[in-house]
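User: My instructor asked us to take a sequence, write out its structure as tokens, and then describe one feature of it. I'm not sure where to start. Here is the sequence I was given:
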Amino acid sequence: MAEAPKLPKLDLPSVDCTLYPRGFGFPVYAIAPSRPDIAYTTGRGLLAQHVVSSGKQHWSAWTRVLRYSQITKHRWIVYYCLKSLELIGYVNVDYVYAGDLHMSCSTAGWTFMSAGGRVAWSSRKQPITSLSGTGSEYVAAASTAQDLIWIQGFLSELGFIEIGPTTLFTDNQSSMTLAKNPGSHKSTEYIRVKYYVIRGVVTSKGVELKSVPTGEQVAGVLTKPLGRLKFPIFVSGMGMY
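Assistant: Let's start with the prediction itself. The structure tokens for your sequence are:
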């Protein structure tokens, strides 16, 4: 996918209105759950939001995804036999133009890795329009923490008991400060109370927030198109070979 695709939002489809939904639906259902490298492209962040009203540009973009999937069909997630199955998370948000030129909603993505490969991931639009990058990252961290609680419970049922907090990497220092400081912040008063769950999880030592350089933020592949140079590096960084 091009580094900055501009897919128009149409009021009415300019091609057969059944072509794109039929061609898009089943392959995504079959492929996407096992391919985190195309989660953003096929999700609500990009192609899925044009199912109702699509045109030639959307169909062309989708055929490129199919070609990529065919060429890389032998790519898989690699796990290693390690003594410790430490769970490590990454969370990222695309706040450039709020991630969406049409609705001004950011796209958030998170991934958790263990034994060298991804074990869970998500790429979806945020339900609110944030007024700053800090707000977007904070909301994303809170939503990720909620999903982490379920993942930790699931792994516990399988007998994998993690000792200590789960490390969650973010490339936004301000959101880390906000999560670690329970005080009131004027610039984020619009954020709903439910998103303050991240503060409780950090305080109870369930999650330890750490900073990671943007160039090493592997969750970036779940929030934005990266282009030919960055994309392979980020895909390898999440354990796919």
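For the description part of your assignment, you could build on this observation: The chain has seven helices and five strands. Try explaining in your own words what that tells you about the chain.
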